[in-house]
Structure formats: structure tokens, C-alpha cells
Write a structure and sequence with these properties.
The chain has 232 residues and is α/β, with parallel strands linked by helices. It has ten helices and seven strands.
Length: 232
């Protein structure tokens, strides 16, 4: 099978690494050949550059970084692009029309998967920027799916776990216990699935082991959509 060349615009390292690993390990089943996977290229600016803009609410600055990566990946032959970072998708509308290549949108893919699983109300977990931002609400609404976010104090603590631990590749029992406590509360409010909409949360929560609710793994959902796109 001849795959298209996937370009990955990285942001934080663990999520980008998990996305890359998923593409490279799961494509073989579609190709019907052991070890087969698409050509993959990745470019990422320093995470600190992204965070300066994100924390300042400068989404134009984030867009410029993403567009810079897109241009580099286009020059080395990528056919289309993905970014395994939910938060920076807030900048999509600021540069998408100027991008040299087409993109898959992580929230659109997660919403499609939630629809496929007949989810009705999703507990949306991620950074505070993501949970309080516009990336997912419109995509879930378009798919006829409701969503709930944690309460303010919960959002702050989840955000600390993400930036103090998960983006550095650290997974602690305390973080897992807290996430599961929040999930249990949101389940009591009618959530029938959990949106792991920070690309590092899949490092923390284990399907069927930690909860029997469906876990919408945004990192792997995006990677699998990219595999299918590359094979088309």
C-alpha cells in the first residue's frame, strides 16, 4: 500500500510522541504488511514559545508558530497535516486559509467518534484554555452531542496536573485519583463518555481499568484518522 506523507505539527512532547507512535504501530493492520506505515515528518517549535502566547491569550502568535511548522513540512513533502494538541486548535481559524496544506481537525474527529459511539453527553477534560475555550463546543453541538466541563476549582487543579506533570511525561497516582473523582461527579450529571481532550491525558487514564465509561482518546482518534486519510 502506498500511503500519503503525514506531517505532524508538534507542541508538547508526550502527546506528539504518542500520536507518532500510534500512526507507526497501527497502520500496519490497514496496510496488511508487518511494520508498514506512512512516511511521517514532524516539526515543533519550543513548547515555551507556544506557552508564552497561550498564557497571554495571543492566539495570533500561536497561529504564526503553527503556520511556520506547516510551511516547513510542506517543503519536505508532507501531503496533509495534523497537530496532536487540543489547546492550540483555538488558532485554527486564524491561519487555515493561509496554510500550504490541508489539515485534519482534532475536535471534528473526536466529535465524529463520539457520534459513532452514540454518546449523548461528554465530560470534556483538558487544559483550562481548552475546557473554557471554543474548540469543542461547536463541534459537539454540530454532532448533536452535549458536553459538560468540570467546575472552576476542578478545572484549575486539572490544569496544574497537566502542566506540572503530564506534559513532562510524569504520571502520578494522585493525578489519576483526582481525574477519576471528577469523572465520577460528571457521570452523576449524566455524562456517558469522557473526552480526553488534552493529548497527554491518555497517558494517565486507562480504558476499562480506571472507568467503564468510553474514553474518547483525542490523541489516538486523530492518529487513526490520519492513517485512514493517508491510505485514501
Amino acid at each position: 500500500m502506498k500511503f500519503k506523507h503525514i506531517g505532524i505539527v508538534g507542541c508538547s512532547a508526550p502527546g506528539a510522541a504518542l500520536c507518532y507512535q500510534t500512526v507507526c504501530t497501527e497502520a500496519a493492520a490497514l496496510a496488511g504488511e508487518k511494520y508498514a506505515h506512512p512516511e511521517v515528518s514532524m516539526h515543533t517549535h519550543p513548547f515555551s514559545d507556544y506557552m508564552r502566547f497561550v498564557e497571554a491569550g495571543d492566539w495570533e502568535g500561536v497561529a504564526d508558530l503553527m503556520l511556520s511548522s506547516a510551511e516547513k513540512l510542506a517543503r519536505i513533502g508532507a501531503d496533509f497535516l495534523i497537530t496532536p494538541d487540543n489547546t492550540i486548535h483555538q488558532s485554527f481559524g486564524l491561519f487555515r486559509g493561509r496554510s500550504p496544506l490541508p489539515w485534519l481537525h482534532i475536535a471534528e474527529e473526536v466529535a465524529a467518534e463520539a457520534g459513532r459511539l452514540n454518546c449523548r453527553r461528554v465530560a470534556l477534560l483538558g487544559t483550562k484554555f481548552l475546557m473554557e475555550g471554543p474548540v469543542y463546543p461547536a463541534r459537539f453541538a454540530a454532532a448533536g452531542i452535549e458536553h459538560l466541563i468540570p467546575e472552576e476549582d476542578e478545572r484549575k487543579r486539572i490544569n496544574r496536573f497537566i502542566f506540572d506533570e503530564l506534559v513532562e511525561g510524569r504520571v502520578t497516582p494522585q493525578a489519576r485519583e483526582y481525574f477519576l473523582k471528577v469523572i465520577a461527579r460528571l457521570r452523576g450529571e449524566g455524562c456517558d463518555a469522557v473526552g480526553m481532550c488534552c493529548t497527554e491525558i491518555p497517558l494517565l487514564l486507562r480504558p476499562r481499568t480506571d472507568t467503564d465509561l468510553p474514553l474518547l482518546d483525542s490523541t489516538r482518534i486523530l492518529a487513526r484518522a490520519a492513517i485512514k486519510r493517508a491510505a485514501a
